[in-house]
Design goal:
Blueprint: H1 3-10, H2 23-35, H3 37-41, E1 51-55, H4 61-69, E2 74-79, H5 82-93, E3 102-106, E4 119-125, H6 134-144, E5 145-156, E6 162-164, H7 168-183, H8 194-200, E7 204-215, H9 220-235, H10 238-243, H11 249-263, E8 269-280
Parallel strand pairs: 1-2, 1-4, 2-3, 4-5
Antiparallel strand pairs: 5-8, 6-8, 7-8
């Protein structure tokens, strides 16, 4: 995709983001970051990074975690959304440990305003699924990183989603959820492609790992918490899906009822995998 077409598509005014930009959604993103923190950061080591670029920092939910967990780094976060950046600035301003250690800039990730070799690390989390050209973003990340720097990426792999008991309205909604994201020039399966992308761009020391929530009767409270969390995630797109005629209000209502039933089923199974990748320039 040509840069000028990308820019036209990705302006906040005309970009129909899957989850929307409401205050309720901003709070959900912060909750999501806390919910998945252990899974995302369990093997993430930024001890040798001093100047980190966070691409797609959004409301600052991951920025806050990064600054809290790694007290020696300085963070530069970029995002194209004015509303999300305002929320990020407010969140980080309230975090005493973050003061003097971050900079937030509204910027197009496919055409960064930074000079080459500006950073010694990059972090991307749940962002490439929403952009039309993830390879172009990763190419820009490589340009602004110093030789030998590390990039860490966490991304979705929505084909992995499984729920039992069988819930027909959930499946209809989930398929519409993914189809709508594709129609908005995103990729709900991008996680599985990260290794290929990184190889294509000349990164080396490429590592990928599948991280999985697999919750059954062995973990009843975690299973219930995860299903309830995913209900909020699914509902965050409901207004957009109904307005675009991807689902009916009846399917939304049916999905909510089925998710509540699964959350309280003594024999339920919840399964979802995402992908983490790392590489060096």
């Amino acid at each position: 995709m040509r840069p000028e077409i990308y820019s036209a598509l990705m302006t906040e005014k005309n970009f129909s983001y899957l989850h929307g930009f409401s205050e309720k959604e901003q709070l959900r993103l912060r909750k999501q970051a806390r919910f998945a923190e252990h899974m995302i950061y369990s093997k993430l080591n930024l001890a040798n990074v001093s100047e980190l670029l966070e691409v797609g920092c959004g409301v600052g939910a991951q920025s806050e975690i990064l600054l809290r967990r790694f007290p020696d780094l300085k963070l530069t976060g970029i995002d194209r959304s004015t509303k999300q950046m305002e929320a990020a600035k407010q969140l980080l301003a309230e975090s005493a440990f973050a003061q003097g250690r971050y900079s937030l800039k509204e910027m197009d990730a496919t055409n960064m305003e930074f000079a080459a070799n500006s950073f010694d690390g990059a972090f991307l989390c749940w962002i490439l699924e929403h952009v039309p050209d993830p390879i172009r973003v990763l190419s820009e990340v490589r340009r602004v990183l110093r030789p030998g720097s590390a990039v860490f990426i966490t991304e979705v792999m929505n084909a992995s989603f499984f729920l039992d008991p069988y819930s027909p309205n959930v499946w209809k909604y989930w398929m519409a959820f993914n189809e709508y994201q594709r129609a908005q020039h995103g990729d709900p399966f991008v996680g599985a492609k990260l290794g290929n992308f990184l190889m294509q761009l000349g990164y080396h020391d490429i590592q990928t790992e599948v991280k999985t929530w697999f919750l059954d009767n062995r973990y009843p409270q975690s299973r219930k918490d995860s299903v309830e969390y995913w209900t909020d995630l699914l509902l965050s797109a409901s207004d957009q899906l109904v307005a675009a005629n991807y689902v009916s209000p009846e399917i939304v209502d049916g999905m909510k009822l089925e998710m509540a039933k699964v959350a309280n089923d003594p024999n339920a199974v919840f399964f979802y995998s995402f992908i983490q990748a790392s590489a060096k320039t």
